[in-house]
Amino acid sequence: DIQMTQSPSTLSASVGDRVTITCRASQTINTWLAWYQQKPGTAPKVLIYQASNLESGVPSRFSGRGSGTEFTLTISSLQPDDFATYYCQQYDSYSWTFGQGTKVEIK
Amino acid sequence: QVHLVQSGAEVKKPGSSVKVSCKASGDIPSYFAVSWLRQAPGQGLEWMGQIMLDLGTPNYAQKYRGRVTISADKSTHTAYMELNSLRSEDTAIYYCARDYGALSYFVAWGQGTLVTVSS
Lengths: 107, 119
Description:
Chain A is about 0% helix and about 50% strand. Chain A is mainly beta. Chain A is globular, with a radius of gyration of 13 Å.
């Protein structure tokens, strides 16, 4: 299985900050990568698909970049609603796998 | 838009089985796939397997092959996940999610079903 490694595991930031989360794949996955946001007690919600495509309805402050093995999710100006846990997921090959998650906390 | 609704929470004994359902409603396309994932308490997400509702063909993660059965009733747009030989480590929230088959992410999720395995 392809291993996905996210960094950092926890990120402390303030409202208005620009934050970036990194996701690395153990082998190339082209651009077959999605990013999800999960809040406590709720199911994940897709933000970005195919590395850089914004899912319909997702605010434009979210953006994704990368290809091959290295990817980033950036929130340009952190809002109170953005404090959550973020996961990357590869769908290049079965079994689809996720990163371990990055928790974005209030500083 | 497709909406997924899962069955309710379950409490099971070690060694038993659990079957969770996931019913789709809304504007359901002819090509429709459902994946099952799980999330142990305080842990990350793990994909267990997938089924194409129109074909009824399941695809399993290696880790769960032989212990999980994913099935579907095309007439009611309902997918099922049965996990056997339950152990305490299987305590988790189980999610169904819509995907597009191969090379797909998860575009819509059920609300989750808590399965607790305890003696």
